[in-house]
């Protein structure tokens, strides 16, 4: 492959939920996983179990026995090699994401290597000299000292209209409460 991708998305629910995979023995399932990984790294596979048994680490007779079941998970491409449709869709999607990210990075950095200050990033916060003193800030406020908002004082005494706790009406059995 011209551009190797180090990893691929794997959806366990799709894999284990596949009718083909759920009917496989553990050995067949392991062979399939190893072939998918090898195909991701190296591209299409030869349609010959005698060439693939070393790739998966199986004995030749074990590979030949598992081959009809495992082979059903692959299609033949125009060159006569085996490809897994879902894996190839994921490869195309990953390559598209990679190209988009590369184009975005080149656009941000003008197509060349990233400048040294782009790695470090801009300085954080304004320079200390640009911060005005507190008195100057007060002088620039849009209202006069007389109009300046005052601090709200909270009282612990209830307003006179509410009365005290003892004067409030309490529900009793006579007025329908607790019946």
Protein architecture, described:
The chain is mostly helical and 179 residues long. Among the domains are: 12-84, Arc Repressor Mutant, subunit A (Orthogonal Bundle), CATH 1.10.10; 88-112. Helices cover 46% and strands 2% of the residues. It is built from eight helices and two strands, in the order H-H-H-H-H-E-E-H-H-H. It has helices spanning 12-17, 19-22, 26-42, 49-56, 60-71, 85-108, 116-120, 134-139; strands spanning 75-76, 82-83. It has a two-stranded antiparallel ribbon with strand order 1-2. A hairpin with a 5-residue loop joins strand 1 and strand 2. Helix 3 (26-42) packs across helix 5 and helix 4 (49-56) packs across helix 5. The radius of gyration is 37 Å and the shape is elongated. The termini are far apart.
């Amino acid at each position: 492959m011209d551009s190797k991708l180090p990893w691929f998305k794997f959806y366990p629910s799709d894999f284990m939920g596949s009718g083909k995979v759920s009917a496989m023995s553990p050995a067949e399932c392991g062979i399939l996983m190893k072939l998918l990984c090898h195909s991701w790294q190296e591209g299409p596979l030869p349609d010959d179990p005698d060439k693939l048994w070393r790739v998966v680490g199986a004995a030749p007779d074990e590979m030949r026995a598992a081959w009809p079941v495992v082979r059903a998970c692959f299609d033949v491409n125009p060159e006569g090699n085996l490809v897994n449709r879902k894996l190839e869709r994921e490869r195309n999607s990953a390559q598209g994401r990679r190209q988009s990210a590369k184009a975005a990075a080149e656009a941000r950095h003008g197509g060349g290597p990233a400048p040294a200050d782009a790695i470090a990033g801009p300085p954080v916060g304004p320079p200390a000299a640009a911060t005005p003193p507190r008195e100057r800030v007060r002088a620039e406020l849009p209202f006069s000292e007389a109009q300046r908002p005052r601090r709200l004082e909270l009282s612990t005494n209830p307003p006179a209209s509410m009365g005290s706790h003892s004067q409030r009406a309490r529900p009793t059995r006579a007025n329908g409460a607790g019946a």
